[in-house]
Every structure is written in C-alpha cells, then in structure tokens.
Amino acid sequence: MSTSEAPGFGLDLPEYPWEAMAPYARRAAEHPDGAVNLSIGTPVDPTPEHIRAALAAAADAPGYPTTHGTPALRESIAGWYARRRGTPDLDPADILPTVGSKELVAWLPLLLGLGPGDVVVRPVVAYPTYDIGARLAGAEAVAADSLDELDPAVRRRVRLVWVNSPANPTGAVRSTESLRALVDSARAQGAVVASDECYAELGWGEWDEARGGQRVPGVLEPAVSGGDLSLLLSVYSLSKQSNLAGYRAAFTAGDGALIASLVNSRKHAGMIVPAPVQAAMRAALDDDAHVQAQKDLYRARREVLVPALEAFGLRISDSEAGLYLWATAGEDTWTTIKRLAELGIVAGPGVFYGEAGAGYVRVALTADDDGVAAAARRLTNASGS
Ligand SMILES: Cc1ncc(COP(=O)(O)O)c(C=O)c1O
Fold it and tell me: Locate the Aminotransferase class I/classII large domain: which residues (predicted)?
C-alpha cells in the first residue's frame, strides 16, 4: 500500500466503535466449541425463496432505476402501512425507497439542509448513526427523550428529532400518547420528527400482535399524527423482518413536501435503490406470512436466552420488542463483556450507545437455533444451576 504524505483529507469521524470488540471476539473464539456471536444484530436465517426469485426475475436491468421508486413498489409500501402499521390512505407519492435505512439516518440532516447552529435530538441511549448524521451535516447532536429535557436556548435550535421505537439497543416501546406528545412538541418548534421504526413487527408480550397484544405504535398513525403528516417521516427497513440486510432495502414515508425534496436531492446525488432490489422489496412487502414465520423463530430464541441470561445473573430491562435483550449485571459493561467472552459468547457493549448505556450489554437474538441453544447451555452451566 502506498500512503499519501499530504494530511488533511478525510472526515473527522470517530473510529468505528465495533473495532474495540476485537479482543473479546478473539477471546470468545478460543472456546473449545467455538464462539456464539450475539453482538451485531445481523440476520442469519435465509432470505425467503420468493424474495430471491423476485430479485432474480428482475436481474435484466440495463437502464437506470427510478430514485423515487417504481409506482408498483410504492403501492406495496402503502399497502403494508395500511395492513400492518395502522396507517391507511398513505399517498404513494409520499413514499421513497432508500439504500437500507442506515444511509438515510446518516444523511437525513444534510439532505434536510441542516448545518451549523442546528440541533438534532436523538434518544439518550441510541443507535450511534443519529449522531454521525448530525456531524456529517455540521449540526449538533443532543441526547434527549423529550424536548422538555432541553434548555430553552437549545430547544429553540432543534430542527430534527429522532425517535426510535422499538428502540435499539434497549427494546423499549413508546406508547401512542408518548409519541403524540413528542410530535406535538416538535411541531410547536417547527422541527421534523423522524421515527425509526424498523423493529415494529417484532413486538413481544403486550406488543406481540400474534399473541393477542397490541400493535407497536407508529408516527404516521392518525392517533399520533392527528391525521396530518406535516413534518413527520417514518423510517423503515426490511433488513430484519425479511432477512434482507444484504439487499439494502428500506424506505421512508410521510410529509409530501419533505419526500419531494429528498427525492430531488437524492436524484442529484445518485442515492438510488437498484431495480432488482426494488422488485424484491415488493415481493417482501406483499407477503406477511414470512415475516410472521421469522418472528416465530426470534420469539423461540428469545424464550431460550432470557432465562439463561437471568440464571447467569443478568437483569433484563425494557426489551419489549426488537432483536435485542438489554441486560445488566450491575457491574462495568466491559467486565460483563469479558465474562461472556470467557464463555465463548460475544455481546454488544452498552457504552456504544451513549453514556446512559454504561453497565449494560446488548444481547442479540441473531444466532441460529444451535448457537442460541449453545449460548444458553454455557450461561446456565456457568451459573451452577
Ligand atoms: C435503529 C436502527 N436503525 C437503522 C438500522 C439500519 O438498518 P438497515 O441499514 O439495515 O436498513 C438499524 C440496524 O441495525 C437499527 O438498529
């Protein structure tokens, strides 16, 4: 590799945090039966056959795809919001596919025209990309779960509020009332609310619709939006519910003027979902059965892991929905990470998600059944029970 002598290039971003996990991953790999990786929530089950077939059938794609998404895809997304998210009558014009949702999270502040002096609010314990997006725009990220927590001088500068329910990493779900209150206070400020809802189909307990629970509330639902989508964006991803993380398949929907502006900027910037992926997304969104089948797999893995983690001495908090168990042993995060690594289990350090994550670890449900069973055995044996 030849290296440039001239400094001064590259963005001033923190080192990607997961690099800090390398020693613990190495330690876990020394386990005689191998490591079980429950750190990054990357899906491990196969992409459903009918989605792969749709991708393959659309493989002949010599022309440029549409940035706004095909009308057929946007119809499928609108249909899914109506069926699954309590949001009927969404205008397909007010929907936009994205290249996975991480890119939208990272670029939204810039694409909204935010910059120095503007404040982006993100949850106190949060997916780190909300902060990165603020930095890429030169705006200031502020951690808060309600605008009432902010100093008035900061509150006046808020232009974008991220909400993430069900949350990564905590699995906490915000009620309709709490979302509504956040929307009302952000609107009073003239700020956009971007609601990252990618775990909404994975509710447990009282949020498990498949077991008589309620639907996880979303920002576009009339009970939250008041029937007015202005300043609201729902951000959604098919990575988890359809095992499509490798396809980069996601979308956003809401305020028509914001969507139109995003479409225009993204046309200029070449932020376009490939045509075969757009076809695959339709196949995924038109079929609810595979999402329910995948959810059943995660539910079963969760039911194996919860008692094993508790037997090991971890207390699980929140974790009402999504792909993670948010747990603490009442000690330093890295002590728990090390103790788990000694059992050949790799977990995510809570401190990666903000200072309020100190003392916690995030345990993902994304290992196959054998891996989850092995992790549970090791945890239970280590507890001596
Ligand atoms: C809260 C949250 N938002 C966004 C993403 C990004 O999803 P993707 O880029 O795969 O669509 C993730 C992935 O883990 C996430 O947890």
Answer: 36-379
